[in-house]
Design a protein that fits this description.
With about 325 residues, the protein is of the alpha+beta class. The protein has three domains: about 80 residues, 2-Layer Sandwich (Uridine Diphospho-n-acetylenolpyruvylglucosamine Reductase, domain 2); about 140 residues, 2-Layer Sandwich (Uridine Diphospho-n-acetylenolpyruvylglucosamine Reductase, domain 3), CATH 3.30.465.10; about 80 residues, Uridine Diphospho-n-acetylenolpyruvylglucosamine Reductase, domain 1 (Alpha-Beta Complex). It is built from nine helices and 18 strands. The strands form six sheets. It has a five-stranded antiparallel beta sheet with strand order 6-7-13-11-12. It has a four-stranded mixed beta sheet with strand order 1-2-5-3. The protein has a three-stranded antiparallel beta sheet with strand order 15-16-17. Helix 3 runs antiparallel to helix 7. The longest helix is centred in the last third of the chain and has 19 residues. The protein is globular, with a radius of gyration of 20 Å.
Length: about 325
């Protein structure tokens, strides 16, 4: 996102017509089922539309957010001041007839579903991602991981859209599409250069490496991971893991040891099953979850001297 002027709705209407939705509720689009409205919302049905919409917003200087599966974010009760691009770019293509099998997917494709498709085709390498609720683009940006594996180990390259420092003869911002090899993403634990510096660009698609296997073997491994997830993570409306695991320890263990399992504020609860998951029990406000975040951080730091770092992204105004 880029800090910008207030959203010019009429300009957006002129460019996108009936595709533009105004004051669109975001709670139904997030996995935690909380958050206020977006000033405006657009849906991108493919990577070309995603690029076109993003470039237009860059050129107009309009604040924006690209929203995929709605996990790993907490939208404030006041919503988002700008344009939300709902990423429905979901095309997938398996590249089987080559020495290194791979799958190319647009950034809005559901990552967990993609992993299941790979298993059913007899490919290994993505079993760890079965059950992850986010998109391919979000997984690249956040270096998603589970069961000792992560996106950094699977990514061959990502198709990135950047806005350059140059402008056209008409004075408009120029955009550049590049294929970034894995090394250029500068992956770290649950992070990439795109997460640390959002203005660096957006993910349009990704190419992920696979390994030959059989449908039976790949699906058995995926099912084992899925069963473990169901045993250890709570069902219902959550954002996924709230905090990153500190070096040599686990955020959930620290929160539990601080005596906070089951703690509730409003209708938000620190899960009794896994303390690094905060659950909306039905009518939670985003502020309720945020107050639990503050409580957990304060308690863990006071007891263990560890400052927990958020894995989820805070979206909107949290100054109140």
């Amino acid at each position: 996102m880029m800090p910008t002027i207030s959203t010019p709705i009429e300009v957006l209407h002129q460019r996108f017509g009936d595709r533009l939705r105004v004051h669109e509720p975001l709670a139904r689009l997030t996995s935690a089922r909380v958050g206020g409205p977006a000033e405006a919302l657009l849906e991108a049905e493919n990577a070309a539309e995603l690029a076109d919409m993003t470039v237009f917003l860059w050129q107009q200087g309009i604040n924006y957010l690209i929203l995929g599966g709605g996990s790993n974010i907490l939208v404030s009760d006041s919503g988002f001041a700008g344009v939300v691009i709902l990423n429905h770019a979901r095309s997938v293509r398996f590249l089987e007839d080559q020495q290194q099998p791979a799958v190319w997917a647009e950034s809005g494709a559901n990552f967990g579903a993609l992993a299941r498709q790979a298993c059913s085709r007899g490919f290994s390498g993505l079993e760890w991602a079965v059950g992850i609720p986010g998109t391919v683009g979000g997984a690249v940006v956040g270096n998603a991981g589970a069961h000792g594996a992560d996106m950094a180990a699977n990514l061959i390259l990502a198709e990135i859209l950047q806005h350059t420092t140059q402008t056209s003869v008409q004075g408009q911002i120029e955009a550049l599409k590049e294929s970034w090899p894995m090394q250029k993403l500068e992956f770290q634990y649950r992070s990439s250069i795109l997460k640390r510096h959002p203005a660096a660009g957006i993910v349009l698609a990704a190419l992920l490496k696979l390994e030959p296997s059989t449908p039976e073997a790949a699906q058995a491994r995926a099912n084992a991971f899925s069963e473990h997830r169901h045993r250890t993570q709570p069902p219902g409306a959550t954002m996924g893991s709230m905090f990153k695991n500190p070096t040599g320890d686990y955020a959930g263990r620290l929160i539990e040891a601080a005596g906070l399992k089951g703690t509730r504020i409003g209708d938000a609860e620190i899960s009794m099953l896994h303390a690094n998951f905060f659950v909306n029990r039905g009518q939670a406000a985003a502020r309720d979850i945020y107050e639990l975040i503050r409580l957990a951080r304060q308690a863990v730091e006071a007891k263990f001297g560890v400052r927990l770092e958020l894995e989820v992204e805070l979206v909107g105004d949290w100054s109140l």
